[in-house]
Specification:
Elements (H helix, E strand, L loop, with lengths): L1 H14 L2 H20 L4 H22 L2 H14 L9 H19 L2 H16 L7 H18 L2 H12 L2 E2 L2 E2 L10
Antiparallel strand pairs: 1-2
Length: 182
């Protein structure tokens, strides 16, 4: 069932079909309900809550309905009840940071933006050493975007440092572009 929800979310991301993200949400809601009623493992409930929260953030991006964002925020906040040693803790923090960033944009609230940045920073610090570099680049970009949105001069320096940390031997290496070998 998780795979079906992921397939619908991927279809939404690829094609922008609202019905696809709605199907993903419907499946993820069922998964959350099943895991809560069966008192499933922490991992299963965490994954279901996080997937539902992420799907709701994507729905919010289309509908701009504040209650959708509030539900996503609550689910992603609850997903952080996983153990500190959980390998997906960093990802969960970044997803929650996305919810805080969206709320700050919706409400124009700088304190919420500060909270998003704080959570992104914590997520970046929690990335395991052996984490794939592509995900690390995306994570750094998410933090850099939030810092730029806040607009302080020190934030500009920090965001540039995050972006520059992806420079390899004077050449920018984008993970989606193969490295040029001379």
């Amino acid at each position: 069932m998780t795979e079906a929800a992921l397939l619908h979310l991927t279809n939404f991301l690829d094609h922008g079909s609202l019905s696809e993200v709605e199907k993903a949400i419907e499946i993820n809601r069922k998964l959350v309900s099943v895991h809560r009623s069966k008192q499933s493992s922490v991992d299963a409930e965490f994954e279901a809550m996080e997937n539902l929260g992420v799907s709701l953030i994507h729905l919010y991006g289309v509908t701009h309905e504040e209650d959708v964002l509030d539900e996503a925020h609550e689910l992603l906040e609850n997903a952080l009840s996983i153990p500190a040693s959980h390998p997906s803790l960093s990802r969960a923090k970044f997803n929650l940071g996305d919810a805080w960033l969206a709320k700050s944009e919706l409400l124009g609230d700088e304190e919420m933006l500060d909270k998003a940045i704080e959570i992104y920073e914590a997520g970046l610090n929690d990335i395991p050493v052996d984490h794939p570099s592509f995900d690390t680049e995306i994570s750094k970009s998410r933090l850099a975007r939030a810092l730029l949105a806040r607009g302080r001069s020190s934030d500009l320096s920090r965001s540039m440092a995050l972006i520059a940390s992806n420079v390899v031997r004077g050449k920018v290496q984008l993970s989606s572009v193969p490295a040029k070998h001379n």
